[in-house]
Amino acid sequence: MNSLPRPDIGPFADTPEKRWVGVSFGAAAVGYDGVAALQREVGESLLAGIRHLGPPPARMLDLGAGTGHFSGLLVAAFPTAECLALDIAEGMLRFLRSHRPGADGMGLVVGDAEALPLADESVDLIFSNMAFQWCERLDRAISECCRVLRPGGRLAFSTFGEATLGELRMAWRAVDGYTHVNAFATRRSVEQELRAQGFTKIRLDARTLRRGYPSVLALMKELKALGARNLTRNRPRHLLSRHTLERVSEAYGRLPGMASAVTASFEVLTALVEK
What we know:
Rossmann fold, 7-stranded mixed beta sheet, 37% helix, Malonyl-ACP_OMT, S-adenosylmethionine-dependent methyltransferase activity, S-adenosyl-L-methionine, Malonyl-[acyl-carrier protein] O-methyltransferase
């Protein structure tokens, strides 16, 4: 099958095309919790880091709330605080409303992290687990968080770092010239942006988690089930053939240490900062 003409992608070829992010994650809502083990592991560690960090918030925001797993845990950790659960995927919030105990007491907001529909200095705590990597401009998202936080407010977030899915990226490069894996932020760029926005008491950590899969196809299916499909502007606009997938698997197997196993790396950046 011949590929369709490639779009005029400009300098953002490997960043997510935002108009499809909400659609993709909304479609993944029903099965998301069943495959989001890594996201839960990271989020639980992030939440543990803020439980005793400063006074309890009066108003908090779960930014990129998804199915509301951590919205519920935030309410349990800070029961006197008003909780807003915001996500760009309306389908995720519909799932949250109908499946998450306590959803009636939350404010559910469909919104964009890069243009938060909230007033200036209206929130004491922003919690965001594995959402910022889906922003077109991370600097805008961090700027918006700074805008809506009250003085002394805290931002706690996690996102993927540049080494994430490096093996899959290299395997695809051996097959074609399209972008199949998003570009992720570097630790240095995240720290620079936090400082540029005036955040203080910056704690920024990086660690790499590795997960094994029975096949490259199994890895790709899990990413799709999470809603984390390829949404870059330079993605192929045609269906992938069996032959292409076989070539990717062969290229993956030629990577160092992959001859007898399929391992994927996820670099996780976590930040705890204060305005």
